Amino acid sequence: MRLLVLEDDAEIGQWVYDGLSREGHVVDWLKDGREALAAGTVNFYDVLILDRMTPGLDGLSVLKALRAAKVATPVLFLTAMGDVDDRVEGLEAGGDDYLTKPFAFSELRARVSALGRRPAQAGSVSEQTHLVVRDIELDLLKRKCSRAGQDVDLNGKEFALLEALIRANGRIQTRNMLLEKVWNMNFDPTTSVVETHISRLRGKIEKPFGDTVIKTVRGAGYVIES
Amino acid sequence: MSLKAEAIGLFRSSAFRLAMALSVLFVLILLASGVLANLLLVDALQEQMDDDLKMRFDTIAERVKSNDDHDDLEEEFEFMADPRHSDDLIYFAAFKSPDGRMTGLSVPDAFNRLGTRTLVLQSGGKKDDHDKWRVHAGNVSGGVLVVGRRWDTSEDILELLPGAFMAAGGAAVLLTLGAGVGFGFAAQRRIRKISRTLDQIAEGDLAARVGPLGRADDLSDLAAHVDGTTARLEVLLRQTRELSVNIAHDLKTPLTRLRARLETLAEASVSEDEALPDAEKALEEIDRIISTFDAILQIARMDAGAHNKRFEDLDLGELAREFADAYGAVIEDSGFGFELSVPQSPSIVRADPALLKQALANLIENALRYSSPGGQIRIGVSGRSIEVADEGPGIPDADKARVMEPFVRLDAARSSGGFGLGLALVQSVAQLHKARVSLSDTRAQTPCGLTVRIDFA
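Structure tokens for the assembled complex are given below, as produced in the milestone run.
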């Protein structure tokens, strides 16, 4: 993918640039908000990664100007830590996701990847009534799950968790992404909410069938590979 | 404020008390001057009366002298009659000739002493002021002449005097008290404005000001001082807050870099098995530092009121069920019992969902950390309150208030991990919602456990 990174701190910017380049992305790294706005308007990018506090023009203003210019490129915000308001402000201004500094690179990688491969028409996936991966089938209307033709009885959160993993379509879901999607929690609990539910879900979807569906990616998150 | 409270407040107001004291003082002065005026007036009246009496005495004495045998004295005394039998009489005269013959009125008492004095000559047996006479007795032609004058008429003035004093005094007292009530109310209103502002300040709103209080007097001076002091405090507190926020912000960038380097290190050492656990441990530690700074920033922002309140109607029961969904499994898998008690009817409060969730998560995680093995953890909603109860070692009553302060450590078993900012954050979130946090024991026996309850107003 082609990515734009707006980050004024040299070291962090370098780290993000190196990391994303190593993943095989083409990265434009800019330190000034005005340059980022110009680049974002002229070039085509898959994802824009904008820091909130940047010289020239801050990230939020860059986003607003881009959206005003009908640039619909997905935007990931890098927000200062502890600022819940910044996150909400960013999302309200048309940002698609946010990441609180300091962040794990695995988190950035997973979120950029999720944003970049969003379907062109956002509605098309959510209008589906059935999700299928391997031999697992989710009936979204009846909230029913079956594997290899056998009904699997999942509770609400287990179903939502499995749905989130299947919808990710082979991409890694981090703990925080799952917390946001399934439990609507925008903070990182120190206890193992996600791990516990993954383990219970595995008990129902894997154990009776004797194989592994949900793969744990060490230090990153979970993925269901098709 | 109720009428009764208002009245009590008025009674206690300094202006009213001053008016009362002044009234009492005024009445005392009035009484003293009344008594003094009375004495002086009596003296003056008596002097005047005595002059009049002497003149009349002299006139009658002349007649007595010119009437050698004293036979026709009755005629001379024609205007005289027995004062004891006539109320109209103002003067009387009586003469006792050298041979002991009495002419005129028979008032033996009057003759036994010469000079001027006051006598009471009873009429009809009953004694009243009407019978008071001023009497002058003197030697004339070898006999004794007595002339009397009724006190009566002049006495009227003296009777009017206290009445006049009472009326004037009463009116003055009423006016003073009325003015006292008026000033009291006015002063009370202004004082209430000051104390309301002080209450706001005590609640942490350092932006509260008394503002202008009208007239330039001691009260508006006081208000100006209160405002000045608060302004100074606000600046100091803001500087302190800004300092901690700036420290946290300044440390953010190096922390981010450090975390980035550690992560690179951890990933690079995947091949060298022994380096990996250390790098991951270091990452865990730095994440802990980061979340502490996060909490500091959040508490500072909430306490400063800088938080944009994204309040919405929220059902505490629904929130509790959501948390039961997320944490029930975690609690059970950690070896504790889990209980959720939520009433059928919704209990709607105005709240910032994100912040309230975070506070609740802190409480549950505290319970998870401190509960004794096999103990029960309960999330409960009742009325407009939500609580998390554990069966851990609990907190001694003496420490319950202290434990809300940031970074408090207790020496008991609870101190192992330290509360850090958990409860302080809960407290700040509650304050932002004007809710109250209270700590209590979950049960009577040991371990007594801890119940943290958030009461919405």
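Chain A touches chain B at residues 9, 11-12, 15, 80-85, 88, 100-106, 156-157, 183-193, 196-197, 199-200, 219 (CB under 8 Å). The longest helix of chain A spans residues 10-22. Further analysis is deferred to the final report.
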